[in-house]
Amino acid sequence: MPIFEYKCRKCSSVFEHIFSKEDKLFCLFCGSVDVVRSNTVIFGPKKEYCPKEESVSCEDCIS
Q1: Beta bridge partners of 6
Q2: CA-closest candidate to residue 21, choices 59, 57, 55
Q3: The whole model's pTM is what?
Q4: Using one digit for the tens of pLDDT, what is the confidence trace for 1-58?
């Protein structure tokens, strides 16, 4: 599973987390659920991040 970098909008902390659509992400520092994923892939398959699909599996976006 890919690991993405996330940023908390409340306290501006940056942290890494395994990507999963089932997970309800929350900030590891302040507990806020207002977090956004950056385009940074820390570890994962050899695919690019697709902002349109918000996943790493959008083959149409890879050029």
Answers
A1: 15, 37
A2: 55
A3: 0.57
A4: 677 888 999 999 988 888 766 678 889 899 999 998 877 666 665 555 555 555 544 4
Task: Report the run of H or E that residue 3 belongs to, with start and end.
Answer: strand 3-8
Q: Identify the residue whose tokens are 């507990």.
A: 31
**Annotated domain spans of the chain:** 3-61
* Whether 10 contacts 32, CB under 8 Å: yes
Kind plus residue range of the DSSP H or E element containing 36: strand 35-43
Q: What is the token pair recorded at 42? A: 């820390």
Side chain identity, residue 6:
Y
